[in-house]
Structures are given as C-alpha cells and as structure tokens.
Amino acid sequence: MKTARRLAAAPALASSGASPRPITLRAVPRPAKPLAAHAHGRARPAEPPKPRTKTRPPAHRPAPLALVGRPRPAPAAPVAPIRFTLRDREMALKQYSPLVKYVVDRIASTLPKSIERDDLVNTAVIGLIDALEKYDPSRGTKFETYAVWRIKGAVLDELRSLDWASRTMRRKARDLGRVCRQLDQKHGRAATDSEIAEEMQMTSNDFSRLVDEIRGTVLLSLDQSVALDDDHELSGLSDVVMDPDAPDALEGLEEVETKHLLLEAINRLSEQERLVVALYYYEEMTLKEIGETLMISESRVSQIHTKAMTRLRSRMRTLGVGI
C-alpha cells in the first residue's frame, strides 16, 4: 500500500518543482506456506527444500601409458646332451673313476659289512655312465658335481631295492636306537623298557608294538667276525651260534668207532651165529623164516641168537662200549 501511495504522489511532486526522491526497491520476504493439514487433523511441518547439487563435468581420463622396455631376447634353442662315442666313453670312465671310489667309500662307511662293496661299485659305475649320457653343459653345472649326484642316487636306489624294510620302519628303528644310547649314557646302565617308553612319550602297549615291528629290521650276518676278548677273535657268528639240527662231531666219531668195534666183534662169532645175526638184523627175517632157511627149528634159532648177543655184549663191554 505504501508503494502505491508513493507512486500516486509522484506527479504532484513533479508539478510543484520539487526534486523527486529516489525509489528504493526492497526485497519483501515471502510468507511461509501454511502447514498442510494432516489426514488425522494434525499439522505436518513443511519439508525443507532440497539442496541443489552441482553437476560436475566428467573428468578427463588420460590415455594409459604404454611401458616401453627392452626387447626380450629370444629363448635359446635347447642344447642336446653330449653323445660320447665308445672310445670317448672309455676315456671318460677312466678319467672320472675316482668319483666312483669317492662316493662308494662314503656310503659304505655307514653300511653293515654284510653288503658287498663290489656290488656298490658296479652300481656306481652304471650311475657314472648315466651321467655321461645325460649331462647338459648348457645348465652351467660342472660335470663332477652332476656325476657325484647321479652316482650317489644310483647307489641309494640299489640299497633301497635290496632292503626288505620300509623307510618309515628304518626311521623308527633309528629313533629307538638313539633314545636307548642317550638313556644309557645318562644313567650309566642299560635303560629299562619303561624308561625308554617314557622318554619316547609312549604307553607300554605302544612301545611293545613298536619293538615287535622293528624286530625284523635288526639282523646279523653269520659271517661277521666276532671278538671274544682282546686275544681271541672268531671268524664269524656261525662259530658261536649253536644249530640244534647240526650233528655233534664228537657223537659222530663215537658212532663210527662203535660200528668199527661191533664189526670186529661180529667177525669173531661162529659162522652160524654170524648168519643168524645177518638174517635177523639186516634181512629183517623172523626166527621162523630163519629156521626154514637154515632147516632148523625156531627154538634152535632163538638159542643161537641169544648166544650171539651174549658174546657180542661181553666183547663190547670189554672194549668199554655199551650196547
């Protein structure tokens, strides 16, 4: 209303010659919107205006950089293993034969004497020949290093093939032996089964089963030399181990001598007595059959037999032999 009055008074001021006053426009705030009535009659506050978000232009992504490096060299062509002629192989075997002896000596020092060293040498030579055929100089390894590795592998493979026990069983036997040696040194005496089982953290039943399992891995050679003391040494265990089925040499000599004396005593009998003894003991004839053969009665044959046995016993008793 004030603005309308000022606009109406403007021509009157102009006619009176007074200078018009400048018009100042002010921003009039808008009245707030009435609260919207809720469905249940309650007034619901007006929702605040949503802030305006400025949309940013899409960022310019630079093109991916291409890595420029040194060109990769082309893979080298595989080098074929060296092929030796028969003459070159013989020369190489003579040249590298010390490697065979070196490997065999190191391995044989930890093996029982029952394993023949010549068998290990033959296996090591086969490993050396295999190394000569498969050696690749392009790998940058010396032939001596490669040959020792191949020779040792061939010998170990041969030993594993000859061993009837598994590697696990051998490991258990070594662990048991190590614990026994430690306890013997600690106590100054032979360790008992309970002490060994406690050291290995096993029950008595488990320890008994372990001993039963590894019992077959501990074998001795009858040809292995045994020293009874400092002055006496036997050629092998066969000299001290008794064979229950083997004949006793002393008993054999006594038996031979007894037969010889008995034969002399029989030859001193009469012809009829010798004939009865031969038919009864060697031909296994009955007294009746002997009587029919000699055309005498059975009772007479019995008398002759009894007389011959009495004379033989008396003769052998005189010689110190009882029958």
Structure report:
This protein has 323 residues and is mostly helical. Among the domains are: 86-162, Rna Polymerase Sigma Factor, Chain: A; 167-216, Arc Repressor Mutant, subunit A; 261-318, Arc Repressor Mutant, subunit A (Orthogonal Bundle), CATH 1.10.10.10. Helix content is 54%, strand content 2%. A two-stranded antiparallel sheet has the order 1-2. The longest helix has 21 residues, at 167-187. The model is unreliable at 1-20, 36-41, 65-69 and 76-81 (pLDDT under 50).
The portion of residues assigned to helices is 40-55%
Mean pLDDT: 75
User: Beta-strand percentage?
Assistant: under 5%
Order of helices and strands: HEEHHHHHHHEEHHHH
Q: For the CA atoms, what is the radius of gyration?
A: 59 Å
As an assembly, this protein is single chain
Main sheet properties: 2 strands, antiparallel
Q: Figure out the total of helices.
A: 12
Q: What CATH architecture of the domain at 86-162 do you see?
A: Orthogonal Bundle
Across the major sheet, the strand order is 1-2
CATH class of the domain at 86-162 equals Mainly Alpha
Inertia-based shape: elongated
